């Protein structure tokens, strides 16, 4: 079984990674952890709102955050002695996860819920819901 485990660095995604590790351990599964960075346009493309220097600093902090998030994710699997691949993508999270899951032939996607409710959920939807609706593979949404 091929599992795509999604992370965004949140506590809910951390719980999802732990569930993915449990499943992988029981089924001797192949696991890939994915983190999708939102695409941030360059200041030249959006006007005078950010200087080159502030954009460079933002990108540097973003790289550090990404490295930390991926290291934390890998550690969860290392603690269970489960081999894991990592995948870093840029784009819209639900669309990117759905494309990767479909193209990669994953059997299951494990993702944390956002916990949105009421009108917010109706208007905004959620990454987990969009992924569940957008792919053929099984999706485990961890609360």
Can you put this structure into words, describing what you see?
By secondary structure, this protein is an alpha/beta fold. It has one domain: 3-Layer(aba) Sandwich (Rossmann fold), CATH 3.40.50.620. Helix content is 52%, strand content 22%. It contains 6 helices and 5 strands, in the order E-H-E-H-H-E-H-E-H-H-E. It has a 5-stranded parallel beta sheet with strand order 3-2-1-4-5, sandwiched between helices. Helix 4 (93-103) runs parallel beside helix 6 (127-134). It is globular, with a radius of gyration of 16 Å. It starts with a strand and ends with a strand. 28% of the residues are buried. The model has no long low-confidence stretch (mean pLDDT 88).
Strand order of the largest sheet: 3-2-1-4-5
The succession of helices and strands, N to C, reads EHEHHEHEHHE
Content-based structural category: alpha/beta
> What is the mean predicted local confidence, pLDDT?
88
CATH superfamily caption: HUPs
Binned, the helix content reads 40-55%
Largest sheet: 5 strands, parallel
Q: What is the CATH level 1 assignment?
A: Alpha Beta
Structural domains: how many: 1
Q: Please give the number of β-strands.
A: 5
- Our measurement of the CA-to-CA distance between the termini, rounded to an integer number of angstroms, reads 22 Å
Shape: globular
Unreliable stretches covering 5 or more consecutive residues? none
CATH architecture: 3-Layer(aba) Sandwich
The name of the CATH topology is Rossmann fold
Strand content: 15-25%
Please work out how many helical segments DSSP would assign.
Answer: 6
Radius of gyration: 16 Å
């Amino acid at each position: 079984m091929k599992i795509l485990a999604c992370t965004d660095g949140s506590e809910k995604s951390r719980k999802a990674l732990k569930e993915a590790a449990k499943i992988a351990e029981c089924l001797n599964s192949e696991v890939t952890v994915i983190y999708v960075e939102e695409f941030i346009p360059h200041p030249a493309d959006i006007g005078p709102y950010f200087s080159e220097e502030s954009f460079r600093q933002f990108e540097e902090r973003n790289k550090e955050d990404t490295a930390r998030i991926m290291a934390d994710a890998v550690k969860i699997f290392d603690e269970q002695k489960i081999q894991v691949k990592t995948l870093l993508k840029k784009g819209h999270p639900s669309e990117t996860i759905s494309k990767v899951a479909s193209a990669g032939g994953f059997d299951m996607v494990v993702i944390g819920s956002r916990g949105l409710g009421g009108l917010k959920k109706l208007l905004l939807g959620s990454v987990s819901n969009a992924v569940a609706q957008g792919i053929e593979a099984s999706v485990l949404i961890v609360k």
